[in-house]
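Provenance and format

Records in this collection were gathered into a single text stream. Each protein contributes a sequence line and a C-alpha cell line. The two records reproduced below are adjacent in the stream.
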Amino acid sequence: MDMDIDLIVFDMAGTTVMDDDAVHRQLQAALAQVGVTASRHDVNAVMGMPKPHAIQALLTQHQGRTPSGDAVASVHASFMDRMIRYYRDDSGVRECEGATDVLRWCRRHGVKTSLDTGFNRAIADAIIQRLGWSEAGLLDATVASDEVPRGRPHPDMIFRLMELTLVPDSARVAKVGDTPVDIAQGRAAGCGLVVAVTSGSHSAAELQPHGPTHLIETLSGLYAILERSTAGAA
C-alpha cells in the first residue's frame, strides 16, 4: 500500500507510555533533594526536553543563577535512578490506550514505527523492555536524547531515526507527541504530519498555539489521519 507517510516517530512518556505522572513526580522529588520546589507548571514548561537541559533550566529558574555541571549531574542521577526503578517495577506502568494496536496497524500497512524520547538510553530501555514492544517486533528503531548532538526541540533525533530506517524525505515522516517541544521538533524536521496528543501532559488549548497539523485525544485518532493519507496517495 502506497502511503504518504513512510515513518512515524512516536514520543514515549505521555504519548505511548502511561506513567501516572511519574516524570513530573520524580523530577520534583529529585529537585527537592537540593531544596528546589518546582510546581507542575514549572515542570510542564520543560517536558520533552533532554532531562539534563530541563534540570538546568529549573535550577536556574529557582536559584537565580546558572548551576554547576556537577549540580545538574547530581539531580539527573537521582532522577534517573528513580525513573528506572519506577519503569522496571511499578504496577502503574502501562501503554497508553491503543498504542500496541496502532503499532500493529502501522506494520500491517507498511509504515515504519519508531520511538524518540527526552530520556536517556538507560531509561528508554527500561520502558521498552517493560512493555515488550521490541520483542514483539513492533519497532523499527528507537533513539534517546543522549545519542544525538541536540535533543528536542532540535530535529536531530528525527533525522537519526530517518537514517536508521532508510527514509530520506521528512515530508513522509509523521511526528506524534504530547508536548510543545514535540511539535517544535516535528516542525523543525519538516515532518509532513505533526500530530499532538491531548491526553498526555498538555491540553489541546496549550498545544494548538504551537502549530501541530492535527490534534487527537488518543492514539486511535491516528487511524483517520493515516487513512486520509492513504486515500490521497492512491
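Adjacent record:
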Amino acid sequence: MSNRILHAGAIFGAAFLVLVVGLGYWQVWRAEALDDRGDNPRVAEAARRFDRGSLISADGVVLAETDTERALRLYATPSLSQTVGYASTRFGQTGLELAANDALSGEEGGDFVDFLESTFLPDRAEGNDVVLTIDSNIQQAAVDALGGRKGAIVVMDTQTGAVLALVSEPTYDANTLDQSFPQLTENPNQPLLNRATQGLYPPGSTIKVLTAATAIDAGSITPETDVECNDAYVVDGFPIECVRGEGTFPFLEAFENSVNAVFAQIAVERIGWQNFTSYANEMGFGTDLGLEIDASS
C-alpha cells in the first residue's frame, strides 16, 4: 500500500511540476509574445479597464472612438476599416487599433496613477488619442477615384513619406464585425485583406522608373540617347511589343510614352539581371516598409 501511495504521489508531483513549468513558460517567458498577438482577445478584454482613446485624422475627423455607455468601439470611415482595424473582445485587434494599443489604452504615455488605479481598483483610466497622417479629404478623393472597384490606392507625401490616404476595396463595416466575422472570413473577395499594404501585385509599368534610374546611374544611357523600336523585342521567345512608339527617338520620349520594348531591351542588353537586382535592393525593394500595420515586403 505504501508503495502505491508513493507512486501516486510521484505521479501527482510530476504532473504538478509540468503544470507549474507550463504556466511559467506562457505567463512569464512568452507573456510578451502573447500580448503582441493581434488575435489574442484577452488583450482587447483587458482594454475594458480603460476609456480607450480615439484615432483621429490629420484634419481632425474622429475615425474611431469609444461609446463608454455601451462599451463599444465606433468606426466612422468604412474605407479605412482595414487600416484602422478593429478592437474586439471576441476576435482580438488588427490594424492601428493593435499597433497603437499601448497609447490608446493609456499604458504608454498615460498617467501612471490612473493605470495603477485601473489595474487594482474599479476606476477606469483615460487612454490617449492618436492623430494619424491620413487626410480625410484626400481619403475620400481616393475612394471616389477607385469607384468601388476591387483594388487599392495609396497617396503619400513625397517629401516626408507620410501616408495621406489608404484605400482598399472591397471593404467592410467594422461596427458589425462581431456579427459578420464568419461571413467576412469566408468571403472569396477577402474584405478583411488590406490590399494597399498586404496585397502582392506585378509592378507593371512602374518598374520602368527603376529601369531608367538603373541605366542612367550606370552610365548605360542618357535621356538624350537615341533608342529604336521596331515591331517588338523578343525575350526568351516572348515578344514585347512597342505599343506606343515605333522608329528611332530619344530615350526620354520612350520614357514619356512608356514604350515596353525599349525598356525590355535596355534591361537585357545594357543593364543585366545582376546589376538590375543589385540596384533594386539599394532602392529598398523587398525590405520592410516601416509601416505600423501589417504589410507585405
